[in-house]
């Protein structure tokens, strides 16, 4: 409860800081959401993607 | 037949074939509100007979003028049977009790409201940004177009003094391996006597390699390499002479041969585009 009170007083009380909080939160949320979605996708397609089987076909030092 | 029954007004009960009572169109006065128990203002058990009994039936508030010792003149029957809407299902649990002060719980309720607002806006901003960037990126060139827009030239295949032509974006591309003598000549040209003044250093990245578009700036013919008065390019259509740096020296063409954007990946390879 004390934490939420501090958060409210610091971030939500003024409209300016509230807007900044939303912007920063959107950036953080975008990173978490996108990378989380990618991680889930790769988990579900493990062994099927090119990045997973690339080492079988490409030798070191060759391009 | 149905329209006749509907329009017949007062006769419609006699024109109907069935006598089954169905629910009428009249709705409750306050729809969609949860009602928890009736809360009528009048006392239905009290007898409704005389002036004295009416005294108990009338509401206690509102305009009431006493004209006699024990009589109430302002007896209002209207609206005394309206149910009081119960909004407790829509209220937060902190403010359910009307007798309790809402002041203590105001902070937690406010924090909750702001948190919900902020979280919704964050998701909304993310969605809007994603939609806009999707639309904007759909306008740019697709990957297959971008892949065709570049060409890699292996420079070791071109001997000194030779010019090779490649097809790049539907146009001929000249890659010329200049000799030391040609480089010295082109660097030493007096810029003042050129039609389209441009120093040789501005047209090349490495002096050994001249990369220009093989399109004559006059009417778009393809010039012939290693020909003409200046040893560079010569356009057979109308006789424009270009030097070994692709600059116009003689003839009708107004501008130097165009230099595309290119970069050297390593000593052997150049990427144009």
From TrEMBL, chain A:
<dbReference type="GO" id="GO:0005743">
    <property type="term" value="C:mitochondrial inner membrane"/>
</dbReference>
<dbReference type="Pfam" id="PF05365">
    <property type="entry name" value="UCR_UQCRX_QCR9"/>
</dbReference>
<dbReference type="GO" id="GO:0006122">
    <property type="term" value="P:mitochondrial electron transport, ubiquinol to cytochrome c"/>
</dbReference>
<keyword id="KW-1133">Transmembrane helix</keyword>
<keyword id="KW-0999">Mitochondrion inner membrane</keyword>
<keyword id="KW-0812">Transmembrane</keyword>
<comment type="subunit">
    <text>Component of the ubiquinol-cytochrome c oxidoreductase (cytochrome b-c1 complex, complex III, CIII), a multisubunit enzyme composed of 3 respiratory subunits cytochrome b, cytochrome c1 and Rieske protein, 2 core protein subunits, and additional low-molecular weight protein subunits.</text>
</comment>
<dbReference type="InterPro" id="IPR008027">
    <property type="entry name" value="QCR9"/>
</dbReference>
<comment type="subunit">
    <text>Component of the ubiquinol-cytochrome c oxidoreductase (cytochrome b-c1 complex, complex III, CIII), a multisubunit enzyme composed of 11 subunits. The complex is composed of 3 respiratory subunits cytochrome b, cytochrome c1 and Rieske protein UQCRFS1, 2 core protein subunits UQCRC1/QCR1 and UQCRC2/QCR2, and 6 low-molecular weight protein subunits UQCRH/QCR6, UQCRB/QCR7, UQCRQ/QCR8, UQCR10/QCR9, UQCR11/QCR10 and subunit 9, the cleavage product of Rieske protein UQCRFS1.</text>
</comment>
<keyword id="KW-0496">Mitochondrion</keyword>
<comment type="similarity">
    <text>Belongs to the UQCR10/QCR9 family.</text>
</comment>
<protein>
    <recommendedName>
        <fullName>Complex III subunit 9</fullName>
    </recommendedName>
</protein>
<comment type="function">
    <text>Component of the ubiquinol-cytochrome c oxidoreductase, a multisubunit transmembrane complex that is part of the mitochondrial electron transport chain which drives oxidative phosphorylation. The complex plays an important role in the uptake of multiple carbon sources present in different host niches.</text>
</comment>
<dbReference type="GO" id="GO:0045275">
    <property type="term" value="C:respiratory chain complex III"/>
</dbReference>
<keyword id="KW-0249">Electron transport</keyword>
<keyword id="KW-0472">Membrane</keyword>
<keyword id="KW-0679">Respiratory chain</keyword>
<dbReference type="InterPro" id="IPR036656">
    <property type="entry name" value="QCR9_sf"/>
</dbReference>
<keyword id="KW-0813">Transport</keyword>
UniProtKB/TrEMBL annotation, chain B:
<dbReference type="Pfam" id="PF00355">
    <property type="entry name" value="Rieske"/>
</dbReference>
<dbReference type="InterPro" id="IPR017941">
    <property type="entry name" value="Rieske_2Fe-2S"/>
</dbReference>
<keyword id="KW-0249">Electron transport</keyword>
<dbReference type="GO" id="GO:0051537">
    <property type="term" value="F:2 iron, 2 sulfur cluster binding"/>
</dbReference>
<keyword id="KW-1015">Disulfide bond</keyword>
<keyword id="KW-0001">2Fe-2S</keyword>
<keyword id="KW-0408">Iron</keyword>
<dbReference type="GO" id="GO:0005743">
    <property type="term" value="C:mitochondrial inner membrane"/>
</dbReference>
<dbReference type="InterPro" id="IPR006317">
    <property type="entry name" value="Ubiquinol_cyt_c_Rdtase_Fe-S-su"/>
</dbReference>
<dbReference type="InterPro" id="IPR015248">
    <property type="entry name" value="UQCRFS1_N"/>
</dbReference>
<dbReference type="Pfam" id="PF02921">
    <property type="entry name" value="UCR_TM"/>
</dbReference>
<dbReference type="Pfam" id="PF09165">
    <property type="entry name" value="Ubiq-Cytc-red_N"/>
</dbReference>
<keyword id="KW-1133">Transmembrane helix</keyword>
<dbReference type="InterPro" id="IPR005805">
    <property type="entry name" value="Rieske_Fe-S_prot_C"/>
</dbReference>
<dbReference type="InterPro" id="IPR036922">
    <property type="entry name" value="Rieske_2Fe-2S_sf"/>
</dbReference>
<dbReference type="GO" id="GO:0045275">
    <property type="term" value="C:respiratory chain complex III"/>
</dbReference>
<dbReference type="GO" id="GO:0046872">
    <property type="term" value="F:metal ion binding"/>
</dbReference>
<protein>
    <recommendedName>
        <fullName>Cytochrome b-c1 complex subunit Rieske, mitochondrial</fullName>
        <ecNumber>7.1.1.8</ecNumber>
    </recommendedName>
</protein>
<keyword id="KW-0812">Transmembrane</keyword>
<keyword id="KW-0496">Mitochondrion</keyword>
<keyword id="KW-0411">Iron-sulfur</keyword>
<dbReference type="GO" id="GO:0008121">
    <property type="term" value="F:quinol-cytochrome-c reductase activity"/>
</dbReference>
């Amino acid at each position: 409860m004390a934490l939420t009170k501090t958060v409210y007083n610091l971030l939500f009380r003024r409209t300016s800081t509230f807007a900044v909080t939303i912007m920063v939160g959107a950036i953080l949320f975008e990173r978490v959401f996108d990378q989380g979605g990618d991680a889930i996708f790769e988990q579900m397609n493990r062994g099927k993607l090119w990045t997973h089987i690339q080492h079988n076909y490409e030798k070191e030092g060759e391009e | 037949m149905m329209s006749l029954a509907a329009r017949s007004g007062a006769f419609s009960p006699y024109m109907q074939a069935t006598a089954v009572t169905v629910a009428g169109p009249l709705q409750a006065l306050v729809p969609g509100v949860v009602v928890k128990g009736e809360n009528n203002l009048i006392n239905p058990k009290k007898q409704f007979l005389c002036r004295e009994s009416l005294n108990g039936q009338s509401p206690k508030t509102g305009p009431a003028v006493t004209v006699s010792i024990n009589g109430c003149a302002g007896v209002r029957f209207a609206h005394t049977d309206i149910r009081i809407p119960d909004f407790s299902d829509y209220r937060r649990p902190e403010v359910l009790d009307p007798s309790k002060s809402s002041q203590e719980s105001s902070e937690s309720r406010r924090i909750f409201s702001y948190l919900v607002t902020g979280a919704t806006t964050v998701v909304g901003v993310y969605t809007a940004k994603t939609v806009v960037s999707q639309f904007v990126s759909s306008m740019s060139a697709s990957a297959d177009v971008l892949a065709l827009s570049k060409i890699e030239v292996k420079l070791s295949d071109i001997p000194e003094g030779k010019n090779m032509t490649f097809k790049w974006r539907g146009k001929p591309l000249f890659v010329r391996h200049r000799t030391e003598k040609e480089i010295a000549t082109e660097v030493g040209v007096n810029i003042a006597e050129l039609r389209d003044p441009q120093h040789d250093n501005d047209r090349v990245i490495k002096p050994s390699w001249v990369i220009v578009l093989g399109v004559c700036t006059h009417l778009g013919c393809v010039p012939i390499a290693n020909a003409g008065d200046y040893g560079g390019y010569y356009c057979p259509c109308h006789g424009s002479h270009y030097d070994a740096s692709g600059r116009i020296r003689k003839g009708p063409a107004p501008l130097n041969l165009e230099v595309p954007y290119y970069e050297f990946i390593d000593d052997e390879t150049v990427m144009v585009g």
